UniProtKB/TrEMBL annotation:
Keywords of the record: Activator, ATP-binding, Cytoplasm, DNA-binding, Nitrogen fixation, Nucleotide-binding, Phosphoprotein, Repressor, Transcription, Transcription regulation, Two-component regulatory system
Alphabetical list of InterPro entries matching this protein: AAA+_ATPase, AAA_lid_NorR, CheY-like_superfamily, Homeodomain-like_sf, HTH_Fis, P-loop_NTPase, Sig_transdc_resp-reg_receiver, Sigma_54_int
Protein's name according to its UniProt entry: DNA-binding transcriptional regulator NtrC
Residue ranges constituting the Sigma-54 factor interaction domain according to the UniProt record: 137-365
Pfam hit, one: HTH_8
Residues recorded as bearing 4-aspartylphosphate in the entry: D52
Domain of life the protein comes from: Bacteria
Source organism: Sphingomonas cynarae
Residue span, Response regulatory domain: 3-117
Known role: Member of the two-component regulatory system NtrB/NtrC, which controls expression of the nitrogen-regulated (ntr) genes in response to nitrogen limitation. Phosphorylated NtrC binds directly to DNA and stimulates the formation of open promoter-sigma54-RNA polymerase complexes.
Location relative to the cell: Cytoplasm
Length: 472
């Protein structure tokens, strides 16, 4: 029978954990402090050690450092109620086999113990623990705990990470956290957004170019791969990367080398790659817009960031964090009334954390009272024109780009025969008009009003586009 040593100062936790493990057929010994743990370890070595972090006589994770140096093969499972990214990373740092944020599921713990027994010793890392004060990511929801655990597992290696999630969910912040917490932190973190650079310049931006490589290339320029040397390259909105550039990127990932545009010399690519997308890349692969082999090369470690509406319990913490930051930057210090917090939690946050951040800044700047009342927030949440990019905008932009790509592929002559604008607008306009007519029972007058255009204009467009609907 295997022996599990459980160290927690909470008697209730010791009891339920011991019961569950005994039921699973293990022998259990418990300790309520680090001193007691030391006494027990002096006389016998357990097969698995489970320890809490905050104990009356010290920090459980720090003590595990000594324990692992004395018993390098002893698997350790850390339990913690301080559910931050830092705790997850520190647990990974000391070589813990598993880290379970409290509250945890007893079945999960039992499975972790079984896994630890099957696998034996943990992974040992030499990295120093990180600063607890500077938390890069805020939030303690179960959904974020999953994210933290994956981050903790990748910071010390160079595996390629693909972060997916809606716009404003914190994808870039995750990429930065991976960089800042890992061994490349002293070298640069370089970000490049595929959607923000003209398509024909992307390769030159990524790999650099030689003098005269193309019109306007007056001098040799280093690309982002070179600029990020030794550090991390963040490829944002990777789904927008043109196919030719994808082919080139794939080759770099396969060979670990690249050449500049117009150059012949090969340069070693010494970067960790973190890519991000707010689109469903598998759908892009299925549609032939994204190379499948590149997708697999990038998706080595996937991290799916939940939308803010899926982590309601983080809203209050994030809101307070942003108000605090606004105050640190010189805006008046403001607090949230309890019903204001409830209203924020109930909101669906289409712009995710970015929208919440912008709202808190506006509230800090605009509200007169020290405590922010619920009606002020409700008025602002109802107001349009929050400075965020919404998901429909992004989807529309993606659809239009895909459309242009398709026209270029299928009818290359149409790309510069002077009809492209009408063609693309027509493609967008047709489903729009059809949808509005359907919504308004084919009534053209009401559809025109809803669209905000003149009825005659609508009639003309219907005739021109040959939309075969009824009359208004
Ligand atoms: N968990 C978090 N804790 C604190 N701040 C956050 C968190 N998530 C996001 N933010 C903040 O929200 C804003 C948006 O985050 P970020 O730019 O990382 O999102 P993104 O997913 O990369 O967005 P996009 O897809 O539009 O580029 C940033 O100012 C970031 O600092």
């Amino acid at each position: 029978m295997s022996t599990i040593l459980v160290c927690d100062d909470d008697a209730a936790i010791r009891t339920v954990v011991a019961q569950a493990l005994r039921r699973a057929g293990h022998g259990v010994v418990t300790a309520d402090s680090l001193t007691r743990l030391d006494q027990l370890l002096a006389t016998s070595t357990p097969d698995v050690l489970i320890s809490d972090v905050v104990l009356p006589d010290g920090d459980g994770i720090e003590r595990m450092r000594e324990v692992t140096s004395r018993f390098p093969d002893l698997p350790i499972i850390i339990l913690s109620a301080r559910n931050t990214l830092t705790t997850a990373v520190r647990a990974a740092d000391v070589g813990a086999y598993e880290y379970l944020p409290k509250p945890f599921d007893l079945d999960v713990l039992t499975r972790a113990v079984a896994g630890a027994l099957a696998r034996g010793g943990g992974v040992t890392e030499a990295e120093a623990p990180t600063d607890d004060a500077a938390l890069p990511l805020i939030g303690r929801s179960p959904a974020m705990q999953d994210v933290y655990r994956v981050i903790a597992r990748v910071v010390s290696n160079d595996l390629t990470v693909l972060v997916s999630g809606e716009s404003g969910t914190g994808k870039e912040l995750v990429a930065r956290a991976i960089h800042d917490l890992g061994p490349r932190r002293a070298a640069p973190f370089v970000a490049i957004n595929m959607a923000a650079i003209p398509r024909d310049l992307i390769e030159a931006e990524l790999f650099g170019h030689e003098r005269g490589a193309f019109t306007g290339a007056a001098a040799r320029t280093a690309g982002r791969f070179e600029q990020a040397g030794g550090g991390t390259l963040f490829l944002d909105e990777i789904g927008d990367m043109p196919i030719e550039a994808q082919t080139r990127l794939l080759r770099v990932l396969q060979t670990g080398e690249f050449t500049t545009v117009g150059g012949t010399r090969t340069i070693r690519a010494d970067v960790r790659i973190v890519a991000a997308t707010n689109r469903d890349l598998t759908a892009q692969v299925a549609a032939g817009l994204f190379r499948e082999d590149l997708f697999y090369r990038l998706n080595v470690v996937p991290i799916a960031l939940p939308a803010l509406r899926e982590r309601q319990q983080d809203v209050a913490l994030l809101a307070q964090h942003f108000l605090g930051r606004a105050a640190d930057q010189g805006l008046p210090r403001r607090r949230l009334a309890a019903d204001t917090v409830a209203a924020l939690e109930a909101y669906h946050w289409p712009g995710n954390v970015r929208e919440l951040e912008n709202l808190m800044r506006r509230l800090a700047a605009l509200t007169r009272d020290e405590v922010i009342a619920v009606d002020v927030v409700e008025a602002m949440l109802g107001a349009p024109a929050a400075p965020t990019v919404s998901t429909p905008d992004i989807e529309m932009a993606a659809a239009v780009r895909a459309l242009v790509d398709r026209i270029a592929r299928e009818r290359p002559e149409a790309i510069d025969d002077g009809t492209l604008y009408d063609r693309v607008i027509g493609e967008v306009e047709r489903p729009l008009i059809e949808a509005m007519l359907a919504r308004h029972g084919q009534n053209q007058l009401r559809a025109a009003r809803a669209l905000g255009i003149n009825r005659n204009t609508l009639k003309k467009r219907i005739d021109l586009l040959g939309i075969g609907t009824g009359r208004g």
